[in-house]
Structure formats: structure tokens, C-alpha cells
Amino acid sequence: MRRILLTFLAVALIAAGLAYALSYRAGLRALDAELDQSLILTRRAIESEIERFRYLPDVAAEDVRIGVALRDRTETATAAANRYLETVTARSGAADLYLLDASGTAIAASNWNTAQSFVGSNYAFRPYFTDALATGKGRFYAIGVTTGKPGYFLSTRIGGVDTPGVIVVKIDLKPLEETWKAAGVPTAIADRDGVVFLSGIADWLYRPLTPLSPEALAELAARRTYDGIALASAPPLLPAGAATTALALRGPDGGRLHGRVAAIEADGWRVISAAPLARIIAASALWAAGAALVATAATGLAMIYNQRRQLTQLRLRQGALLETRVAERTRELAHEIEARRKTEADLRAAQETLVHTEKMAALGRMSAAIVHEMSQPLAAMEATLAAAELSADAEKTTTRIGTARNLIRRMQRTTKHLKSFSRKEQNTRQITDLNKVAENALDLVAPRAKAAGVAPGFRPSDTAPLVMAGPVRLEQVCLNLLLNALDAVEGREGAAVTLATGVREGTAFLAVTDTGAGIAPEDMARVTEPFFSTKIGGEGLGLGLSISQAIVTEFGGRIDIASAPGAGTTVTVELPAVAALGEAAE
């Protein structure tokens, strides 16, 4: 009996030990998967927060006030730069933005009017300054020596060889830390030396993962990375030589934590995510107790074996059912995607047809004037040729034939514009001169303008307003605006229509102004709606402004309408200039 009891006890202990080990490993694997997922999300959140301000130094440096402040160093230039940096910081949400000269001294800063102003302080010891001067870019996380507040610094070298400088943006990552604390998540970030500088657990903050070497401490002190923090006396979170992928940590209550680490290569940072081991230990202990009990009774083993076999079969059936449903849903989604693609293609075709229809409608509105424009030269040609036939004077005959040829050229030019305008343009873009677009539109609308008794004025831009767009579509937009303006001023005293082009602040514009009756305030919000028209008699389709807005929006621009009843209307088309597009691409 004693041997039997010892045997059962040995079997129970072995079973409990194996069950505990297997359960513990399975729990760790599941926990590792959860922590790895958490690390991916945390790393993306950190990178996204930094990426928001990646190009802020480059964008801020483009302002002329920054260059003037760097070169002149006058009080006026510095004050203008200070105000500009203050405005940019307030708009962007950055912590601080400041300008350093070649010696590392701050000459302008967004916090210039605060007690902790950076102006006059020297930051030549900071790596973000030396790296920016050497390579053009710099990045560094540290506690601010002036404000005492930690932050992430991004820097860019600006200026020429004679007057180099560095513009720096400081990003506050503390909101991430506050989020971790509020959620009670054991998450932290350590720098390339292993010092924790952001943590959801206050006890981990500014402590090294492993003991720091004298060289590392000296380098951190030289860079003043953690100014005011006694790193030499801070106890490390892990013993020397501990693993750097799976970490055995302690929580604020002394409980055991299991941590995982992911790297942020750009800065050499390590993101740490941890979770308590208590639940895994408890679950493993339960498994061990169950295994020990099962090992003491054959019947219990048989029942557990049978239950596990049934559970396995159920999971297999559920897995097969799930795979079947996934396959069915995949086929349904494929059909939905194909149907959506076909619908989108039909919509694009319908839109192109509608644009062409409106173009033809615009030509229809001008048809009477165009016929008149063509009939006049034909009548004049007939009279000129008849006179040439009857004339015996060779010199007069030559002059009259030349007059007839000029009339023919006039008709050819009008026909050429009509053929070009009426064709369907492919959905391609090219560099287009708004001055040329305006000239072509004015040629097309000339017969209608003559019929209305109005000679549109044209103020072309001295600098060619170049945009990336379809020229024929832009001519359609300009023609629609000119026809609307002529309709608005027809029959009014002092009628005038003016077309102007230009470039301002990286935007090319084309503006049509008329002295008509203007747009009523209650109609202003609806003028760009499809099929809305205030014209009497059903002229047009009511699609001109709607289609024009769609075309301009497709090319990345917008239409602005300014009108006052009785004072006329100005419609402005704004598009990104080609030069501005090139700068944005860089």
C-alpha cells in the first residue's frame, strides 16, 4: 500500500510538474503575442506623433523672416521671426520652435515672451545641433536645460555656407505617457543607452534597464540629456547581463511582470510593454492541481481524455465551418468589389458625358452669335470678290483679294477654336498656361460678346500662371464663367466684363468680374448645385457652375464666388501653381 501511495504521489507530482511547465509556456506564448501586438500599436503611435512634426522645421525655414533674422540680426528682424515662430507653434501644436545661429545660440524662439525664453541660450552641446550642421538633419530626446521639461527635438540646417543656422522643433511626448498612466498599462520607452525616459509606471522613469558604464554616464552628462537627474545613483531595473528581448520586471506593487521589447531603429530606442505574471501562474497552478488529481484516478484520466477528444473534434468542426464561412464571405466581397468597380467606371463615364454635354450646351448658347460671326465674313467676302471681278484695276483687285483672304483666316481661326473646344479631352494633365486658356476662351466667346454689345477686358499676368491641368477643361470653365458674366450684364447700362489672371503665394488664379445685378444672398448657397439656374426662359442646363466646380476640384483647386446685389459678381478659380507643386513634392 505504501509503495502504491508513493507511486501515485510520484505520478501526481510528475504530472503536476509537466502540466505546470506546459501551461506556463503556453501562457507566456499567448502573453508574448498580446505584448507584441501592443508594442506594434505603441510604436506606431510614437512614430505617428513624431511624424506629424517631421517637416515642420523645413516648412518654417521657407519663410523669408527666418532667413532675414539669420542674416541681419537686427532687432526688427528678430522680432518678426519671434512672432512668426510663435504663430507657427500655436497653429501646429508643437511644444516650441526656435532658430539657432552657427554657434548654437538661439536668436529667435516661439517662447520669446515667456520667463523660460530660449533666446540667448546656447545649445551647441546638443547632438541635434551638431548633427544638423554636419548632415543637414538632427533628432534627439532630452530634458530641456532651460525649461526643465523633456521633449523630442527635430532639427534642420538652413542658410548658406556663409550664414548657416539650425531651426529646431520640440515635441512634447508626455501626452503618450499620461495615456499609459491613465490606462494602467506598464509601458515604457528607453533610449539607446537603456535609460527609461517615458513610462506609464512612475517608478521606472529615469532608471536604466541595466547598470550604465562610466563611458555612457560621461556621454549623457556631456550632452546634458537628463539634466538634473542623478543617473549614477538610479537603481537599474534589471541585473547586469539580463536578457534584452524578454524582460523580468517588477511592478509598482512588487509583483512580477513579463515584458517584451521592440526597437525604433531611427533613434535606437526600445519600446517596452509588460503584463503581470500572476494570472499565468494562477492558471498554471490550476493546471498542475488538475493534472495531479487526474493522475490519481484512471477513471478521471479516461473522462478527461474523452472530453478532450470531443473538444478537439468540436474545434475541428468549428474550424472547418469557419473556413467555409470565410470562403463564402470572400466570394461575396469579391462580387461586391467587382460591382463597385463597374459602378465607379459607369459614374466616371457618365460624368465625362455630362461635362461634354454641358460643353455642347455652352456652344449652343453661342450658336446664334457664332453663325452671325461666320455670316458677316462670308457676306463681306462675296462683296469683296464681286468688286474684284468687276474691277479692272489690278492694284485694287489685289487689295480686295487680300481682304477676302483675311476674312477666310478669321473664319478658320474661329473654326479651329470651335473644333478644339468641342472635342472630348482625355483625363490627362499637362502644364497649362492660364493666360493661354483665357485667350482661347475670349476668342470663343467673342461672337456672344459682340451680340451682347460688350467687349470683355483682359488683364493677363506678367508672370505665366502655370498649373497642372487639362487645358480644354479649363477653357470650358473659363467659357462658362464668361457666358454667365455676359448673360448678367446684357442690356444693362455701363455693362463691363473683366477677365484677369495672376499668381499669388504659390496659387495661380483666373478671375471673371461683371457689373451685373449680382447674386441674391438666398441663392448664393445654391449657385453650384446641379440644375439650379436663375435665368428666365430655360437657357442652359443649370450645370455650368456645378461642372466647373467639379473640374477645378479634380485639378486640386477651388472656386470662390463674391457677389453683392446690384454691385456685380467676381468668380475666382484658384489652382496650385506648378512651382508650388514642385516644392510640395520635394
Proportion of helical residues? 40-55%
Content-based structural category? alpha+beta
**Strand count, sense and closure of the main sheet?**
5 strands, antiparallel
**Spatial strand arrangement across the major sheet:** 2-1-5-4-3
Radius of gyration: 39 Å
Strand content: 15-25%
What does it look like?
The chain is an alpha+beta fold. 53% of the residues lie in helices and 18% in strands. The chain contains 16 helices and 17 strands. It has helices at 2-51, 56-61, 64-72, 75-92, 127-135, 174-183, 214-223, 278-295, 298-365, 367-390, 394-422, 434-452, 471-489, 521-524, 544-554, 578-585, and strands at residues 96-100, 106-109, 137-143, 150-158, 165-171, 187-190, 196-199, 246-250, 256-264, 269-276, 430-433, 457-459, 466-469, 497-504, 507-514, 558-564, 568-576. A hairpin with a 2-residue loop joins strand 14 and strand 15.
Please render the helix and strand layout as text:
Elements: H1 2-51, H2 56-61, H3 64-72, H4 75-92, E1 96-100, E2 106-109, H5 127-135, E3 137-143, E4 150-158, E5 165-171, H6 174-183, E6 187-190, E7 196-199, H7 214-223, E8 246-250, E9 256-264, E10 269-276, H8 278-295, H9 298-365, H10 367-390, H11 394-422, E11 430-433, H12 434-452, E12 457-459, E13 466-469, H13 471-489, E14 497-504, E15 507-514, H14 521-524, H15 544-554, E16 558-564, E17 568-576, H16 578-585
Parallel strand pairs: 12-14
Antiparallel strand pairs: 1-2, 1-5, 3-4, 4-5, 6-7, 6-10, 8-9, 9-10, 11-13, 14-15, 15-17, 16-17
